[in-house]
Amino acid sequence: MGMITIILIVAIIILAVWLFAAVKRFKHKLFALFLTLIILFSYFSFVYSIKGKDIDFKTIEGIKTAGQLYFSWLGNSFSNFKTITANAIHLDWKAENTTKES
Questions:
Q1: Where exactly are the structural domains of the chain?
Q2: Residue 64 half-sphere exposure, CB side, CA atoms within 13 Å?
């Protein structure tokens, strides 16, 4: 009876160590995925924000203009998201789907 208990305790400890290592690896993979998504978002949003503006990246002024365009575009995107969210809060989400009167 004592030997079975020892084997069970050792198996639980081994399983706990294995799960701890797996969770740690998962956190790193999740962080790597998050960084990859941030980099892809930054790249595609930058390209979209300067599309059709004919910016010269060989000069400091061109880089400065591109940065200003990108951060202006990004700020406006967040502002639009805030406005849409605020408008969605004021909706009446019942079956009639009407706007709430203030």
A1: 1-51, 54-102
A2: 3
